[in-house]
Write a structure and sequence with these properties.
Elements: E1 17-24, H1 30-44, E2 50-57, E3 64-71, H2 74-82, H3 84-93, E4 102-107
Length: 110
């Protein structure tokens, strides 16, 4: 069986990543959460390695939000995770979460 993923020949790293960050918000806190996420989304979409950064709400449970992110490479993700706007938003969101977030990272296969 072959190796999966679209790797850069020079570095051996994956070329593109997809992240799904899913979290459940306390029902009464949705307005606060959306305000925090609006700022995070606006700033993140300006980052050079960001391909896409979109917020979705679960159809059957409006307290469940998911951010679907596409990144050029691991370096772009690392830069995002170190950014001021990311590190401002994360602790600001914490008191409004009903459960710990679920973060899933995928690498492009084809």
């Amino acid at each position: 069986m072959g190796t999966y993923g679209n790797r850069n020949d020079e570095t051996g790293r994956y070329i593109m990543y997809q992240i799904c960050a899913r979290f459940t918000v306390k029902d009464e806190s949705m307005d606060e959460v959306l305000a925090i996420l609006d700022e995070l989304i606006e700033e993140t979409r300006r980052e050079p390695g960001n391909i896409s950064y979109q917020l979705f709400q679960h159809v059957n449970d409006p307290t469940v939000l998911a951010v679907f992110e596409q990144w050029k490479d691991q370096e772009a993700i690392d830069a995002h995770n170190a950014s001021a706007h990311f590190n401002k938003a994360l602790p600001a969101l914490e008191p409004f979460q009903a459960a710990p977030p679920i973060i899933e990272v995928y690498a492009l296969v084809k």
